[in-house]
Amino acid sequence: MASLGSSRISGRSSVVEFPRIRRSSFIKSSRIGFRVFASEAQQEPDLSITVNGLHMPNPFVIGSGPPGTNYTVMKRAFDEGWGAVIAKTVSLDAAKVVNVTPRYARLRAGANGSAKGQIIGWENIELISDRPLETMLKEFKQLKEEYPDRILIASIMEEYDKAAWEELIERVEETGVDAFEINFSCPHGMPERKMGAAVGQDCVLLEEVCGWINAKATIPVWAKMTPNITDISEPARVALTSGCEGIAAINTIMSVMGINLETLRPEPCVEGYSTPGGYSSKAVHPIALGKVMRIAQMMKSEFGDKDYSLSGIGGVESGGDAAEFILLGANTVQGPWVWLKGRRTGLHWCDDARVGVVKKTLRRDEGFHEKHNFSSLKISEGLALPYFTTHTDFGTEAARRDSTKKSDKQGCKSDKDWTEMLCKRDREHGVLTEIFHCIFGS
Ligand SMILES: Cc1cc2nc3c(=O)[nH]c(=O)nc-3n(C[C@H](O)[C@H](O)[C@H](O)COP(=O)(O)O)c2cc1C
C-alpha cells in the first residue's frame, strides 16, 4: 500500500497534525455509534466518533446524492457541522451519463395523492454525476485543502473493467479524500452498463470487483448495498470478506411511482416514457431499518470483534430516525433528505446551534448526568439488536424468558395491560430512548 499524506484535526485555537489513516492502522476499539461523555471538568456531550480511523465531529453524514453534487453544497454541509460528506457518485467518463428531465416523482400522504399531502416517498431516475471527473476532482482537492480536518468521502462507480477501477481509484485518491464509498447499488440506468446494482446483486461479480478495488485503494472502503435483493446480508458479507472496511445501506428501492390516470403513462414521464426508478425518503425508513438490522446481525455474529463499520441510510428525517439506526448497530447515519427538505424544515439537527442546544439542555438538568450515569456514558451501537428473535421463538425461547417475569404478567387481562407492562419493563431496562430524545430533541 502506498503511504498517505496527512490530515489535520483543528480546534479554534490549535491545529493538531494526525497521520492520514492507513487502511491497516484502524483503531480497534471504536465500533461505537456515538459517545456522550461528561466529566466534572467537561460537562458537555461529545458526539464525536472514530470509524475505520476516520474522526468525525458527529455521526451524521451527508449521503451521496444532490447534496454532494458540487463544491458549494459540500462546503455548506461542512459549514453546517455535518460529521462527513459523501459526494455524488463519480465515474471516469461523465459524458456517458445523460440525466433526463423530469427525473423525480413524489408520493404524497393524503387522499388520492392530493397535492397538499405530506411528501412521504420520492422516486428518482437520476444517474450518477454528469459533471466532468476533472471538475469533481478539482473540487474534492479544494474542499480537502479548506477543510483538512473534515471527512470527505468519494462515492465511485465503474464498469466491469479492472483497469478502469484502478485508474478511478488512483485519480480520486490523489485529491486527498479520506475514504471511498462504492456504489454497488444504483438501481436504474447504470445496471445496463454492468454498474451499480448489477454488481451488488451478483455476489460472484461483487467479490471480483471488491478484490480489484481493495487491492488498489489505500484509504478505507465502504460498500453501499442495494436493498433490491432477497437477503442483503449476503452481498454485505462478500464485501467485508473481500476487504471492504464498511457497509452502507440502503440505496434506493426499485419502484414505479405511479401511472397518470389522465395520460395513462407512467411517472416520471420523459417524452412519453418512463423507467423504474429508486424509491427513497420517509416511506422507506422501516424497510431500511429491516435491511440494516439483517446486516448488523450478520456483522455481529460473523465479524463481531473486528473494526468494521456500518452506515445506516433511508428516510432519516429526525434525530430519532437516526438514533434507530444507531440502536440497530450503525456507527454513522446518512441523510441526503436534507436536500429535499432544505433549510425550510429547520431539521439541521447536527449544526452548531443544535449541538449547542443539546449541550445547554444537559447542563441545565443538574441531576441528569448522575441519573443516566453520564460521567462516563458510552452509548454503544446495537443495543436494540438482541431484541430481535424469530417468530417461532416467540412461542418458545421468548416465552421461557418471559415466564421469569411471571409476576409481571399477572393482571394482564388485555393487550393494553400487556403493552403497559412491556413499556414499564422497557423503562426499567434503560433510559436509552430518553437519552436519545434529549440529545436529538425528537
Ligand atoms: C435524487 C437522488 C440522487 C441520488 N444519487 C445517488 C448517487 O449518486 N449515489 C449513491 O450512492 N446514492 C444516491 N442516491 C441514494 C441516496 O444516497 C440514499 O441511499 C437513498 O436516497 C435512501 O436514503 P433517503 O431515503 O434518506 O433519501 C440518490 C438519491 C436521490 C433521492
Can you put this structure into words, describing what you see?
- This protein has an eight-stranded parallel beta barrel with strand order 6-7-10-11-12-13-18-19, surrounded by six helices. The protein has a four-stranded antiparallel sheet with strand order 8-9-17-14, with no helix packed on it.
- Helix 3 crosses helix 5 (203-216), helix 5 (203-216) packs parallel to helix 6 and helix 7 (285-303) runs parallel beside helix 8 (319-328).
- The protein has 442 residues and is an alpha/beta fold.
- The chain has two domains: 20-360, Aldolase class I (TIM Barrel), CATH 3.20.20; 394-442, no CATH class.
- It is globular.
- The chain has 16 helices and 20 strands.
- The model is unreliable at 1-22, 25-43, 339-372, 374-378 and 428-442 (pLDDT under 50).
- The structure holds flavin mononucleotide.
- Residues 63-66, 88-89, 122, 124, 126, 128, 155, 183, 186, 224, 251-252, 280-281, 284, 313-316, 335-337 line the site of flavin mononucleotide.
- Residues 47-335 form the Dihydroorotate dehydrogenase catalytic domain.
- This is dihydropyrimidine dehydrogenase (NADP(+)).
- Pfam families: DHO_dh.
- One of its GO terms (cellular component) is cytoplasm.
Radius of gyration: 22 Å
Strand order of the largest sheet: 6-7-10-11-12-13-18-19
Count of helical segments? 16
Structural class, please? alpha/beta
Average predicted confidence as pLDDT: 77
Small-molecule components bound:
flavin mononucleotide
CATH superfamily of the largest domain: Aldolase class I
Q: Please report which band the strand proportion falls in: under 5%, 5-15%, 15-25%, 25-35%, 35-45% or over 45%.
A: 15-25%
Dominant shape: globular
Total count of strands? 20
Question: Which spans have pLDDT < 50 for at least 5 consecutive residues?
Answer: 1-22, 25-43, 339-372, 374-378, 428-442
The biggest sheet, with number of strands, parallel, antiparallel or mixed sense and barrel status, is: 8 strands, parallel, barrel
| CATH fold annotation of the largest domain | TIM Barrel
CATH class of the largest domain: Alpha Beta
How widely separated are the two ends?
A: 44 Å
Give the count of structural domains. 2
By oligomeric state, this entry counts as single chain
**CATH architecture term of the largest domain:** Alpha-Beta Barrel
Determine the fraction of residues in helical runs and give it as a percent range. 25-40%
EC number: 1.3.1.2
Keywords: Oxidoreductase
Organism: Tetracentron sinense
InterPro entries: Aldolase_TIM (IPR013785), Dihydroorotate_DH_cat (IPR005720)
